[in-house]
Amino acid sequence: MTTVMKKSTIQILPSILSGDFGNLAGDAKRLEEAGADGIHIDIMDGHFVPNLTLGPRAVGAINRATNLFLDVHLMIYNPFDYIEQFAQEGADRITFHFEATEDVDDTIAFIRKCGKKAGLAFRPETSFEMIPKYLSRCDMVLLMTVSPGFGGQQFMPEVVDKIRLTRELCDRAGIPLDIQVDGGITDKTAKVCVEAGANVLVSGSYVFEQKSLAKGIESLR
User: Fold this and answer.
1) What is the pTM of this model?
2) Which of 37, 42, 45, 92 is catalytic?
3) Is there a catalytic annotation at residue 182?
4) Which of 53, 162, 168, 213 is most open to solvent, judged by the fewest CB atoms within 10 Å of its CB?
5) Could you tell me the domains of the chain?
6) How far is it, in rounded angstroms, from Cα 38 to Cα 31?
């Protein structure tokens, strides 16, 4: 299907990890109708993080159900080996973890060769010193605000300083980088992250727990 990414100043990408795994297509349609800017899809291999979730075919099923931008977050080792599969199934942006590979630059280059946007994710415990050299090399930096692997965790406020420092470096260098945050994002923590410089918010449990998906999404803006 034709992918649509809306032009909101703050992008809201609900994580389908918190949806109904027996009705991914239905949840994708509901999120589109509710005004989401895209759908965040967490891919976990049971090794890089202690959980197993979806694979390329699930991304393809979601892609066939919606026109929304698909933001695929790889929490897996050897991400390079799977880029092409996810690209073929409809991922619009593929984000992988700095800590999961020694081939960071090659993986970014291959994502772009496949015609997709490239994101680079960092765990909360990873030193900020690892971030600056990549700000001009990728399309987005994802700063995890929980330890990756499971939904429903508590927001880690110590990451806010990393968000602020990252945005300051980008502004100083004139780099139009998207800064995404993922983990424990609610109407309250979203405000803190946006004030620090984040412009792409991933929220799973909070959005899906609302009686109205549309109101949950709007409250994050």
Assistant:
1) 0.94
2) 42
3) yes
4) 168
5) 11-219 (3.20.20.70)
6) 8
